[in-house]
Amino acid sequence: MTEAGSASGAGTIPPGLGMDADNLHRLGQTPVFDPVRVEEVINRYRGKRWVLIPLLQEIQEVCGYIPPALIPRIAEAVGMFPVQVQGVISFYSQLHTEPRGKKVVTVCRGTACHVRGGRSILKVVKEHLGIEEGETTPDLEYTLETVACIGVCALAPNMMVGRTTYGSLNPSKVARILGRPKAASGGD
Ligand code: FES
Questions:
Q1: pLDDT digit string, tens, across residues 33-53
Q2: Mean pLDDT of the chain
Q3: Would you call the peptide bond into 157 cis, given omega within 30 degrees of 0 as the criterion?
Q4: DSSP state string for 3-25
Q5: φ, ψ of residue 35 in degrees (nearest 5)
Q6: In the prediction, which pLDDT does 93 show?
Q7: Which of 5, 75, 126, 138 is the most buried (most CB within 10 A)?
Q8: 170 CA from centroid of ligand 1 (Å)
Q9: Would you say the pTM of this structure is higher than 0.70?
Q10: Which CATH class is domain 103-178?
Q11: Which of 139, 140, 141, 143 is nearest to 186 (CA)?
């Protein structure tokens, strides 16, 4: 078996992936990334099998997700089989192999938020963004997720946009935070 060594592109970024992510975000296309930064990250962790998860997290930070085309490169760098790296990615729900929005909107589904109207907050967010949970807007601006508790129950109902937490939400506050509705943005 030579699967781990079959990364014939070892040392190179797969073709077509080295473009400016922000520009492509603007164009509404699949995000790509800075190949120099990706190389720098992979080389920094090279040969250290035990740091696979930090390596994957950093790749995700640079690219916005873990491009499947990079998995053989990552596997080769840490001396693993691509299928093993894929297995680790599948195990951790915070690692993603699909493009995600520039901002992740996380709505709390916990009890404290639920009893204070969290369900209607989620409904408003869905309507505003025009997507369901787990989905990303076509312009790659937002990904919508839910969690069991954000950790600030006293301010319920809560949501996060990126790393910023917003509490004591109501529909008009959600609209102010998220700006122009995505669902209507193509129409006017
Ligand atoms: S239940 Fe929503 S923040 Fe804890």
A1: 788 999 999 999 999 888 999
A2: 83
A3: yes
A4: GGG--TTTTSPPTT--S-HHHHH
A5: -65, -25
A6: 85
A7: 75
A8: 15
A9: no
A10: alpha beta
A11: 139
Burial of residue 78 (number of CB atoms within 10 Å: 0-12, 13-18, 19+) = buried
143, 101 in Cβ contact below 8 A? yes
Q: Going by DSSP bridges, is the β-strand pair 142-147/103-108 parallel, antiparallel, or unpaired?
A: parallel
Token couple for 15:
């073709």
Identify the band that residue 32 occupies on the pLDDT scale cut at 50, 70 and 90: low
What's the CA-to-centroid distance between 174 and ligand 1, angstroms?
Answer: 16
Pocket test for ligand 1, best of 106, 149, 166 (most atoms within 8 A of CB): 149
Atom of ligand 1 nearest to the CA of 112: 1
Structural domain boundaries in the chain = 3-91, 103-178
Q: Whose CA is nearest to atom 1 of ligand 1?
A: 110
CA of 53 to the centre of ligand 1 (A): 28
